[in-house]
## 1
Amino acid sequence: MQLTLGPTDCDLPYWITSVAQGTLRDRGVTGHHADARVPDFLKEPGPLRDALILEFGFRGVSEEIATRLLAPYVELAPGIPEMEFYATQLLDEARHSRVFRNHLVELGMPADTLLRDVTELSADYRARVLEPVVDFTLEIVREQQDFAGGVAVFAIVIEGVLAPAAELSERKWTPLSPATGEISRGTAIDEIRHLTVASTILKDHLAAHPESRDRIVEIIQAGVKMWDEVPDREFVIHREELFQEGMAAHADKIGDYEIWPGVRMLDTTPEQRYDMAERWTEQMAEVRMAYMGLPPELLGGAGGSV
């Protein structure tokens, strides 16, 4: 939450050396090292496998949509540093979508029908949760050609939800599947970088153009209201209930592992895990709003998970 990075820190050379040749070294194809295995029990039919298929299936579609949404950001970027940063973020999101999707093949889903199967699996989620986000974002960056407003959407609304959700995913799956945990950790690192740089872009924009403050506030509040209205909770709670059932069946593999300090994962409920991700989202948004010089109370209780 305290990390500070700007577009000149995370330009194209940075991405090539620190991401492609750094954090992705030996993980570029699958998102995890070759020696990080998917355990056999996750390849067998059951609630734990079903929970992971739903989680990574939905996240894969979310990242695909994020990739497509970022094209106007590259086009509208006011300078080369911003253009290079959003070009790398577009590539990051495309990679996330691919590794989430292909992890389903590692779980035993057939590769030749994967795209069709994921489309069918996520149809309701896409229509009810993701399409409102798409419409909201494209109205700002495509119709209104508002780069700063679009950055506000990604910095506070989209990435502000994705980063905490990615961290929860990493914490959940690490004791059960080394491969799944590595994938989640790698995507979480990227999401934090995206959120941090976007916050700096917006902070600098507000400092240079204080007259745009009211519009940025209006966009952020509208985005928070949109997230409050989409029915993401029912989808998340459903897969967390499956996870709960599968977790109980494999309690011996989890033991006293703590999902956050002082709390054993085996002692948590689906609602507690969802609420914790929501709390992290709120805390992240509040910190970033303060960093940008905007009153955190304008958020009115940002929340949600994916």
## 2
Amino acid sequence: MRIGVFCTYENPLDDYIHCLTTQTRLVQHVEALGFEEAWVAEHHFNPDAASPSILALLAYLAGVTSKIRLGSAAVLLPFRNPIQVAEDVATIDILSGGRFDFGVARGGPFPLQNKHFHADKDVSRDMTIEALELIERLFAEEEVSFSGRYYQVDSVRLAPKPLQKTMPLWIATTTPDAIQYAAKKGIGLMGGSPFPLQKVVDIVETFRAAAPGVDPRLTLARFYFAAPTREQALAEAQPFIARFSERMRGIFMAQGKGPAFDAEGVIARSLIGSYDEVIAQVQEIQRRAAPRSLLLKPASLDAAKNLQILTDFAKIIRPALAPSLVTA
């Protein structure tokens, strides 16, 4: 199992320069610790998650790192021109020396995104799949003509092409049809930090039922804070989780979906506790979901403490896991 970080560019100080600088330093820090991956989220119209320009951020990270793989978690395809996405992804792949992992999603549940990008949420899944099919063809074929419901191109030649001959693909989805599509196409799965473990297991089982023998290459994110005692971990993580939960609860309730994302529930679904507790939690995730990659989302509002707990994971927690759980 590979270990990485999940980057959402938190901005608790309402200082975008500090936010971007801090996240860059974090990615460089985990690369030095031997982490294998860093994935960047795409969010819009949210001052607490300053990562709308996901491909620009990844291009910059490609220039300030040398070994760690860089992933998009995820490019929200309904909000973008697929030709431009293909060009940007190919460029980043070249700049990174072939270290790019391409994850996509439909976006949501954030109505402002659909509203301002003029992408109806009822068709955004179909737009995502159609855009991805076009992008794959642009990567693989010399010249592409494409006539779909949402996108049409005539004799397009992508320049440049990605450095990787086959671009690694992932999709973030909980929709059975989209999971089955991913399975049949050999596209990997991404699971978000708040997902209950049983839901993740169900997604993986749906994938495997649709394509027996195909590796779902699950990339699973989890909020993380470990300390010598559970009480210390909770004291530090609770302000971060409360801030996240309040924001998400407001979004869901505004859509008439009722209460959701209570802080205690999010903590229960996270890697938060003593070192021994986190080791046991990671082992449980591996036993039940067998992810290809586990992405840690540091759960502190203090940037220095986030660096420290990632160091603790590398020096205390990872060595305590069975060798089969930590090899790439």
## 3
Amino acid sequence: MSFPAERGLRILHISDTHLFGDGSLHYGMVDTLAALDRVLARASSLGVVDLVAVSGDLSDDGSAESYRLLAGRIAPWASEHGAAVVYAMGNHDLRDGFESVLGARETVVEVAGIRVVTVDTSVPGAGYGAVDAAALDRLRGVVESPSAHGTVVVLHHPPIPAASALLAALELQNPSGVLEACASGDVRLVLAGHYHHAMSTVAEGIPVVVAPGTANSSDPIAAAGTERATVGSGFAVIDLPLEGDPTVMFVAAPSAEDGTEIFDLDAAEVERIAAAAGPKEPR
């Protein structure tokens, strides 16, 4: 089913591809390039797509080759389907590798009369996210001038709470500031990743969509204090009309190994990782 641009925007939302430049397996188990190929093959039946939004943790090793592999898959797919492409930085991404292949870490493009803004929420060396005052001012400055049909913001760390203990320790540290900046202008939709499971809600009156992970699927209802992930990949498809609310579909891109456990971290291990990758001072 196609979604003509004159009626709005059809978005393929992919996140957390975690590619390696040398072909390494994620957690020694998952071929993430093959997982991305499954996602794109599954999405091919969409027909016309206006925008491919890839919301961070594009690479796992930060190498330029990993970004070349990503672009080598995404760009031809997008061209075949008539789509623009935007990439956002995630906490696993490294700035030099990202910029050398994909260009600027924060961008503004217009697609079918809808402005698309990427925001870098990464903090070098950390797993949590933050948007500094200068970047918030930039975002406000962009969205305060109305676009023809509003703005979509693409970032990695969602401005909404996580469901599990480890991801809660690695959340966006200033979600209210980001949402306030979005709400100060014409933002109609926020796209994010990081949580590795589907989520959709409304925050400050703005729909927020978190795409499933490509590299693996986290368990949002794992036992309290633990963190669990299994083999599984998916993506989101969002139809954003010129006026009104978006429609969101979450789609699996299955493999024969789906459901195989990748890790099941106990509370002590979660606390250790949170201490290493989380903020050093409580927000």
## 4
Amino acid sequence: MDILSSRVILRPGDYQATLAFYRDALGLAIAREYPAGTVFFAGQSLIEVAAHGGSGEPPAFTGALWLQVRDIGDAAAELALAGVRIDREPRREPWALLEMWIADPDGVPIVLVEVPAEHPLRRDSR
């Protein structure tokens, strides 16, 4: 099987609130819009907020979105200015990543991650 592309599709309980969160509070750039949804760029992936196919109730989402940022401190300041509640302040994890937790209007967990310069993910393994 060849996977050519991928995206996360969210079917929120309140489409307009979730659209505003990803567009305005997080400031994600729009990849495309269609009559019943909006697709956002999210680094090497896409996040689609769909107004169709949902039940109108908050979804039972047991995973989390992982979004890498350049600077976790800058991200925290931007989110605070946008009025986004920070569920867990930035901190260094035992695996050496800097992580901060927020949630979208339906409670979907979002992990914002800074990969420090000295972290193995940043090293050239060649």
